[in-house]
Design a protein that fits this description.
The chain starts with a strand and ends with a strand. The protein has eight helices and 14 strands. By secondary structure, it is of the alpha/beta class. The chain folds into two domains: 69 residues, 2-Layer Sandwich (Alpha-Beta Plaits); 157 residues, Rossmann fold (3-Layer(aba) Sandwich).
């Protein structure tokens, strides 16, 4: 059985925790009734973060079995709708939701796993919203840090001619490919394991990057280079107070759209 390194954190300030934990590149954050559960890519990173955060918070290191995640997800995970897109687990997919505009609704099936990106996190919802605000017809879309593949699949359903999605986590890539198989209407989507900091990124008219504020700043030159002139960058995973730092890192790209939800920020930037 696959286990995922994580910590359970208790404290008075969730915002302070989110700022502190960002230095350790968490792969996901799950808000619980009396704590926040933070997942990491490796046990070593988890243990380093645990030691550092223990000076400010009550922290417990844990290993979460994938089956436990799936079981809890099935008990409480319901479909979410962002604009004309509804993201639903397989056991909740029944009929098409009612159309909210002249355009037909889109249902995307995502199997909950530790690949994340089910649409229930604010950063994923911000990206889904931003994708619907631009014209994707005929575009090449690059999805960086694809997780469960929900943004890549959404991009294909919204009209992208080709979608290339990358992630450094092999479990995420496996999860994304399994989700793609459940969404046969999403065509011309490929998932590849690659490290953003070292891989040669393909050029794309639209680039999505739902990462962390720190990683966005570090990776800004690479993401800018991957975006075609006149193209669009959709960024999320940053906290509202990180906006100025991220925007400076992505100069000369200009913010043409910004949305906030639950303290998280989604930015759409135009490349001149």
């Amino acid at each position: 059985m696959k286990y995922y390194p994580a910590i359970d954190v208790r404290g008075d300030s969730t915002d302070l925790l989110l700022v502190a934990v960002d230095d350790y590149s968490p792969t996901a954050i799950e808000e619980r009734d009396d704590s926040v559960r933070v997942f990491f890519a490796t046990t070593e990173i988890r243990d380093t973060a645990c030691a550092a955060l223990a000076t400010q918070f009550i922290v417990e290191a844990i290993d979460v079995p994938d089956e436990d995640w799936a079981k809890r997800s099935q008990e409480g995970l319901t479909p979410i709708t962002v604009g004309r897109i509804t993201v639903a687990p397989p056991w909740s997919v029944s009929s098409q939701p009612p159309a909210t505009s002249h355009q037909p609704p889109i249902v995307i099936t995502i199997l909950p796993s530790m690949g994340f990106g089910t649409g229930h996190h604010a950063t994923t919802r911000l990206c889904l919203d931003a994708l619907q605000a631009i014209d994707l017809k005929g575009a090449v879309l690059l999805d960086v840090g694809t997780g469960s593949g929900v943004l890549a699949i959404a991009g294909a359903r919204l009209g992208a001619a080709r979608v290339v999605a990358i992630d450094v986590d092999p479990d995420a890539i496996q999860s994304a490919r399994e989700n793609l198989a459940m969404n046969p209407d999403a065509r011309n989507v490929t998932f590849e394991m690659a490290d953003l900091t070292s891989a040669a990124l393909p050029k794309a008219r639209v680039v999505t990057a739902n990462l962390t504020g720190a990683l966005l700043v570090k990776s800004a030159p690479l993401l800018l280079a991957a975006t075609e002139p006149g193209g669009v960058l959709i960024l999320s995973g940053l906290l509202a107070h990180e906006r100025d730092e991220v925007c400076r890192a992505f100069t000369p790209a200009a913010v043409c759209r910004a949305r906030a939800e639950d303290g998280w920020l989604g930015l759409t930037m135009k490349i001149s």
